[in-house]
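Following up on my earlier thread - several people asked me to post the actual chain instead of describing it. Fair enough. Here it is, all 303 residues.
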Amino acid sequence: MKAAWISHQHIVMIITAIIVGTLARLFTIKEDFRQYPSYPNGYLIHLVTGFISAALGAVAVPALMTKNFVAVTFLSIAIQQFRDVRKAEKDSLQDLENTEYTFRGAAYIDGVAKTFESRNYFSLVVALTTAITMQLVNSKNDWVNILSGVLAGLIVFYLIKRFSKGKTIGDIAEVVPGKIEIRDAALYVDGIFISNHLGSDKAINLFKHEGLAVVIKPHENHFRLTLDHFGQRQAALFEATRAIGLKRYHFTRREFEKGGFVIALIPAIKDINRLIEAVKKTPLLESVKKSRAVMDTNFFGKE
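Reply from S.P.:
Thanks for posting it. Predicted structure:
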C-alpha cells in the first residue's frame, strides 16, 4: 500500500494560510494591549494560541480536498478548547483582583475574557479564507496563489476587525478635569457631592494638594444608561488607577441631574492629561451597552 503524501500545492497553501492567520493574531495583540495582564509571557501565550488557530483553519481545506473528513472534526474540538482558554483567562483575572489598585469588576473581566477568545477565531477565519481562496484560484504559478490568498485573508481580517471593534467612553462622553472642593470635611467635585468620609486632616490636605478628579459627561441623554452602570464606572476607575497609580483614596459618584459620573482619587503620579486619556480609552463593556434602535421601538408596548 502506497503512503499518501501531501502535494506541493497543499504544502504551499497550508504554510501561507498559517503565516497570514498568525499575523492576524499578532496585529490584534498590540491593539488590545491594555486588556491583557502581562507581557512578554502574555504575548507568547497569545501568539501560540493564534498559531494553533491558524493551523486548524489552514489544514481544513486540504483535508476536505483529500476526503479526510475526520481531520475537519478537529475544528469543533478547537472551538471547545478556545472556550476553555476564555475560562482560564477569566479565572486568572479574578485571582488577580486583590493585587490591583482597584478591582476590574466582573463585567470588565467578562469582556476581557470574551475578547481573548474571539481573537483566536480571527486567526482561524483568516487562515481558512486564505486557504479557500488559494484553492479556488488554483493557478500553476505558486506566487499567484499566494498573493491571491494573502489579499483575501487581509481583506477578511480588516472586515472582521472593524466589525468586532468596540467603542470607548471617549466616543460617547466628554471627559473634563474636575475642580476639587472641601466643605466641612466633605469632598465635592464641580459642586457634586462625592463623599463625607475623608475623616482626618491628613486626608483633607492630600485631596487639596495632590487630588485629581475628572467629570464624565454623556454626549446624549441615552448614553447615561451605559455610564450609570456600576460595571462601566468600575472599569473606568480601574483604567484610571492603572494609568497614574493610586496613593490613597478613590471615589466614583454618579451625577444624577445630567447623567455621567465623577472619578476622584489621590494618584501616585499627578498627571491630569494621562488620567483623562485613560478614562477616554476605557472600553464600553458589551454587557452594559444598549441599542438605541431597539429601545426606540414600541415592541414592549405590544400585546
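The mean pLDDT is 83. That should answer part of your original question.
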